[in-house]
Amino acid sequence: MTDRKALGSGASLQNLLARIQSAAAAGVDWIQIREKDLPGRELLGLARGAVETVAARIIVNDRLDVALAAGAAGVHLGHESVPAAEVVRWRRAGNAPAGFLVGVSCHSLKDAKEAEMAGADYVIFGPVFETPSKAAFGAPQGVAALAAVCAAIRLPVIAIGGIDEENAPECLRAGAAGIAAIRLLQEPADAAELRRIVERLHSVG
Hints:
TIM Barrel, 9 helices, 7 strands, globular
């Protein structure tokens, strides 16, 4: 999951694309481009650059139009996005490319069940642990809440919020299909350290 602001005030979109490429080269399976305040033209350029240069699947946050124009693998929807049910209905009408995914951010068991009923392909649940980037969504949910969501729905559940090398295994043992992170994958100083982190996460998955 990207956040260009975490790279520093002088970071450019080219810097961010380079980080995306490094993450993919290190073995990250999915990359969500989450640049909510980026103008559509710039967001499209970033997403298209990622799609064209990395093997990882690229998901675009919120912007269905950009995801389609860039040839991304799917779109990820939040509480302020177009309702998942509407996007799924549009997809079922044959308007989306084969295999196009619809994901939904969830902050409660109720949210997760609603996403499943809407026809989403996966959910991201959290924040599981405390993290500044998810403070607006309330107190950490905890691993027990994550486990409850994983047990209650059939969709893959991706854990998010304060995930690091030490607590990622807890999330996977709770039933999560994977983990999502910003700082964990953007902060490593070099490619070797990033690859070590990704390999360790894969080994516990």
